[in-house]
Amino acid sequence: MLKKPFLQAACSHALRTKLFFVTALCFSLLSSPLIAEPKNQPKGSKTMTSLNASGQEMTNQEQNVLSLIQKMTSNFEGGNLDIVMSTYEKDAAIMFEPGTAVTDSNVSKQIFAEFKALNPKFSYSGHEVIVAGDIALHIAPWSMHGQTPDGQDVTETGLSVAVLRHQENGEWKMVIDNPHGNHLLNK
Fold first, then answer.
1. Per-residue pLDDT at 18
2. In this structure, which long-range contacts are made by residues 3-10, counting pairs with CB atoms below 8 Å and at least 24 apart in sequence?
3. Sequence-separated (6 or more) residues with CB below 8 Å from residue 139
4. Which of 3, 17, 92, 134 pairs with 38 at a CA distance of 20 to 30 A?
5. Distances (CA, A) of 14 to 17, 77, 91, 184
6. What pLDDT does 38 receive?
7. Concatenated DSSP letters for the chain?
């Protein structure tokens, strides 16, 4: 866990460098899943099917995982940080910078609030969801556009990798959220 002086210095440094670490907000994932019309669909029908990255119809659980990711993203963009935090387990590890996980939910909420100052908007070029029992993996390339309080444009891209766990109440929640999944490739 980051100590308060380090966290304050890291956040201050991030703001001075156009909030490089905003990429942590990858999540958020507003784009729709891939959509395709089923074969033999009646002419004029508007029924659509959600597809996974392999082009197969998504299962209900895969759709539920994707819905949670989209919920997190849209609420982050809207500034609803209590809802954002509700998409994570209590001690979830969130990578606001490569190599450093934050597991204190109060610190995570504070960092999200600071990043919200950019008024970020996210888009995704696709989503892959893999479910194995009560564990799921979500992978999505993302891009973010925002603006610093002094009017400078900020654009970032990355690869979001999130691990989720199926809860006893039937919901999914993130356990690990790493929007810097591609950082090893950039070394």
1. 32
2. 7/107, 7/111, 10/97
3. 127, 128, 159, 160, 161, 162, 181
4. 134
5. 5, 19, 24, 20
6. 35
7. ---HHHHHHHHHHHHHTT-GGGGGGGGG--SPPEEEPPTTPPTT----EEE-TTSSBPPHHHHHHHHHHHHHHHHHHHT-HHHHHHTEEEEEEEEEETTEEE--HHHHHHHHHHHGGG--EEEES--EEEEETTEEEEEEEEEEEEE-TTS-EEEEEEEEEEEEEE-TTS-EEEEEEETBTTGGGG-
* pLDDT tens digit sequence for 90-116: 999 999 999 899 999 999 999 999 999
| Per-residue model confidence as pLDDT tens digits over 138-149 | 999 999 999 999
